[in-house]
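Reviewers of the previous submission asked for a worked example of the structure-prediction workflow described in the proposal, so we include one complete record here. The input consisted solely of the amino acid sequence. No template or homolog information was supplied to the procedure at any stage.
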Amino acid sequence: LVKDIVKLIQLNIEDKKALGKYGREVIFEHYSVSKMADDCIRAYDSAYNEIHGNRILMSGYYGYNNSGDEAILTTIYNNIQKMDKNINITVLSRDPEETRAEYGFQDVVSRFDFFKVLSEIKKCDILLSGGGSLLQDTTSTRSLMYYLFIIEWAKIMHKKVMLYANGIGPVSKDKNRKMVKRVVSKADIITLREDDSKKELLSMGIPDDKLFVTADPVFTMEAETRTRSKELLKEAGIPNDKGIIGISVRNWKNDSDFTEKFACICDRIYEKFDKNIVFIVMHNPNDTNISKRVMEKMKNKSYILEKRYYPKEIMGMIGEMDLILSMRLHTLIFATKQRVPIVGFVYDPKINNYLNLLKMPNGGDVNNINIDKTLEEVEEVLENRDKYVDYLNLAAIKLEHKARLNENILKAYCNPVR
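From that input alone, the workflow returned the following structure tokens.
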């Protein structure tokens, strides 16, 4: 050590300056006050998380390329992080690698890996089931049983369970209704996205004191900027020479009759109102296939947004449209957030509920579409667009406020979470 000190003393001025500069850089890079403070905070946060146990497991219809459910996932996830950055969130997804790559989430596991799912339930403190229409047997009883199984095991392992902004039903089969009552009654707290979902659970015998009507979390999601949204439409080859009518359809049972009627509606809108027709894909590849079948039956040119977009990008592009004709719930919600008027088509009671809530025109049941009536609705909205925008503005403000209740309830319920 003495020899080293002597060598330092014997250095010339330039070498001493160079060595001092190097030492200063090392200190700022590795041992500065801010660096040591950051390390201390990270160590504290790690210890806090270990002690206070703030791990959330998210279960839902995630990883299926459905923009509505991906919007739910990203919105809930981001809102929780804003609420408390120290909360650890794990997501159950059909495609963990894609979900991780698309959104940058670190902890994503396969929803079908039985032992991994049980391990994640064991590690978590709170299970969030939702949002969306998870508890219904229209799709299949198997799907319903999957989500009930996750809830059941969470309670077996003594975990807190919150149903987060769920849409309930339809649950038609008696045995399924009994299963829902038995399992959901064990949940600690339940937030629902509309009054009809509460009525459905009450009719099954779920205690009222656990039920809180809020709104879909997507009402708190922010859209892409207008500048970028215009660029995306241009990149998709959508001309800006006239207004745009957005069309959002999904697979349906009576395919031939349904596609022919929608093709006729689109052609007559194009011819009468001189608007470009653009199909919006919310679920790939299903919506792409049905949209293209409608397009093939049209006489006039139309366009399709079939590229894989982030939910906020789809919402942004919808904001550049004059009117939306939609079967899909989250297309209605995206349009509402952007204050773009809607004509909805009912394939499920939830669509009818939202149209009534928003005071938006109802194009009728998809099994019995009346072309002339639909065109009358379109004309009414286009001629009185400002009135319908005002309706949407009032509804959107209320629904965003109600959607924020989900976060507030979770925050209060997650105690101790900072």
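The first helix runs from residue 2 to 10. We consider this example representative of the routine output the project will generate in years two and three.
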